Amino acid sequence: MPSTMARVLDNPFEGWVTLKEAGEIVNRDHSTIRYWADTGKITSYRIGTGSVRVVNVEEVQEYSNQSYRVDRPKSNQKKSE
């Protein structure tokens, strides 16, 4: 049986997704996921020298389930009088 370290080295990104993918998984905008990462609510890591960031999908799901969601009216909807 391989050690835990050997399994991690096989795929070090297992369980980690991009901000966009995380948003799609939890039905939130990727900017919301970025905000959570920027404010330390979830952990994120930059990949390489680019702007790609990854987050742990389980951590995102857990935080999404406990966070408050504001439903904003669409801009094309008329306000009630």
Descriptive notes:
By secondary structure, the protein is α+β, with helices and mostly antiparallel strands. The chain has a domain at 12-65: Arc Repressor Mutant, subunit A. It is built from 4 helices and 3 strands; from the N terminus they run αβααββα. The chain has helices at 4-10, 19-26, 30-38, 57-66, and strands at 16-18, 44-46, 53-56. The chain has a 3-stranded antiparallel β-sheet. Strand 2 and strand 3 form a beta hairpin. Helix 2 (19-26) packs across helix 3 (30-38). The chain is globular. The N and C termini lie far apart (68 Å). 14% of the residues are buried.
Please state the second-level CATH architecture of one domain. Orthogonal Bundle
Tell me the major beta sheet.
Answer: 3 strands, antiparallel
Strand content range:
5-15%
Q: What portion of residues is helical?
A: 40-55%
Strand and helix map with partners:
Layout: H1 4-10, E1 16-18, H2 19-26, H3 30-38, E2 44-46, E3 53-56, H4 57-66
Antiparallel strand pairs: 1-3, 2-3
Helix pairs in contact: 2-3
Structure described in brief:
The chain is of the alpha+beta class and 81 residues long.
Keywords for this structure?
alpha+beta; 81 residues; single chain; three-stranded antiparallel β-sheet; globular; Arc Repressor Mutant, subunit A
